[in-house]
Backbone:
């Protein structure tokens, strides 16, 4: 999945001119597994795709998991079948960001504490990247990103992130 999303962003960057968009500093946003993919995109060596290092600029990751080792050790792995190497290689906390950032992390306040622990771990692990954690007082895993559509702190922060990147 990570390779597919990287290929999709690379294709988007290559076609950005046709779309009237800037191929550099693309802002990526994702929820849940998409939050994990946002972090992985921010660690990509874009030169391997024939693109500049700042192809992805900023990111917003909502309720993502950034260290997959706890999943590998849980019952969920009975279905997934991740090896220790798989978990290591697919864990953003085990990599170094290549994107200039910023990165905005958030999760719903009513989600299991593991989501908050993981976003704080990622922020500590990536000290060279400007990372902000936007705390939300409530919200579950299933409605954590609904706030993007409603007036409030998350929507304001997401719009500012996109605007700041567009105005650079």
Residues:
């Amino acid at each position: 999945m990570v390779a597919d999303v990287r290929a999709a962003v690379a294709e988007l960057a290559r076609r950005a001119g046709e779309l009237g968009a800037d191929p550099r500093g693309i802002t990526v946003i994702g929820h849940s597994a998409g939050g994990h993919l946002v972090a992985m995109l921010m660690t990509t060596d874009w030169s391997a795709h024939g693109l500049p290092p700042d192809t992805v600029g900023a990111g917003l990751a909502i309720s993502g998991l950034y260290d997959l080792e706890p999943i590998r050790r849980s019952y969920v792995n009975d279905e997934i079948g991740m090896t220790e190497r798989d978990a290591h290689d697919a864990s953003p906390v085990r990599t170094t960001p290549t994107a200039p950032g910023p990165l905005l992390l958030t999760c719903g306040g009513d989600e299991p504490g593991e989501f908050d622990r993981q976003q704080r771990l990622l922020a500590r692990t990536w000290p060279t990247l400007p990372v902000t954690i936007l705390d939300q007082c409530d919200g579950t895993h299933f409605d954590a990103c609904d706030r993007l559509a409603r007036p409030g702190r998350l929507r304001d922060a997401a719009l500012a992130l996109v605007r700041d990147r567009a105005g650079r």
Q: What stands out?
A: The beta strands are 26-31, 56-62, 103-107, 131-135. The radius of gyration is 16 Å. The first strand starts at residue 26 and ends at 31.
